[in-house]
Amino acid sequence: MRVKKRSKNRKAVKFYSTCFGFREPYKVLIDGTFVHHLLTQRLLPADDALRDLLSASRTPALFTSKCIVAELRRLGKSHAESFDSAQLLATTKCEHDKVVSAVNCVLSLIGDKNPEHFFVATQDADLREKLREIPGVPVIYGLKNSLFIEQPSVQQRKFAQLDEEKRLNMDISEYKKLMKAASEGKTTASENGSDGEQHERPISSLVKNALGVADKSKFKRNRAKGPNPLSCKKKKPKPQPSAIQNQGATADGEAKRKRVRKRKRSQKDNKQAEMAS
Ligand SMILES: [Zn+2]
């Protein structure tokens, strides 16, 4: 179970690195609810817990913002410990001269495209839902003493399939349209014809890998149809058995005849010798 969870988290991180250019050291934007969760569940030190979650080789950088810290202070005594801890984290610069709610601050920091490549860690269900509607925002949350990365939504995956140029030029309303189509389970291709080819194109192998979709053809092997001809000895042509016998017979016959001839010659010699003497 644990292994399965880990590999799911790993896949999610890989998806965002491949499709949205997230690079180590990862940046995690942490809101007050998450700081509170880390403290109450004793998931400390937090950077180790998050590094483990992200399967990162480098310690991720943790950020809050001025508005997030201010909200924790407003919550008073019950969140005093969280406020103290949040103050120790780095603050990313937000554009609010007058503090706004933590939710609005996070949303403004993420913007339309999450240019800073933040992972957002929050326990706020409403905020999580809003973040799901923005492409390229991985969300971290905790359940008791375990941390999770939300799996990329169907919309995020669809978005990642578009080519880079289209992605960069897409505004949030177009993205929402794409999202709506995805959640209704129909392809945008059927909805508007001109964009059809974009969506019908096969998923790039990179995305496939990121999603853990095995490319079947990649693993198909050509089966050998017989023994490897390079490791076999050359076949010798088999001589005909009858030929061997015949050859043997003729050889034998020849030898016999020679022997007879020899004998005859020696007899002749003997006779000649007798005659001479
Ligand atoms: Zn702010």
TrEMBL record:
Listed GO biological process terms: rRNA processing
Compositionally biased intervals (Basic residues): 256-266
Statement: the UniProt record of this protein carries the keyword Disulfide bond: no
Pfam families linked: Fcf1, UTP23_sensor
Residue stretches of biased makeup (Basic and acidic residues): 267-277
One term under GO cellular component: small-subunit processome
Keywords: Nucleus, Ribosome biogenesis, rRNA processing
Ranges annotated as biased composition (Polar residues): 185-195
InterPro entries cross-referenced by the UniProt entry: Fcf1/UTP23 (IPR006984), PIN-like_dom_sf (IPR029060), UTP23_sensor (IPR057776)
GO molecular function: small ribosomal subunit rRNA binding
Localization of this protein: Nucleus, Nucleolus
Ranges where the record places region Disordered: 183-277
UTP23 sensor motif region domain location: 218-236
Main location: nucleus
Primary role: Involved in rRNA-processing and ribosome biogenesis.
Stated family: Belongs to the UTP23/FCF1 family. UTP23 subfamily.
Name used for this protein in its record: UTP23 sensor motif region domain-containing protein
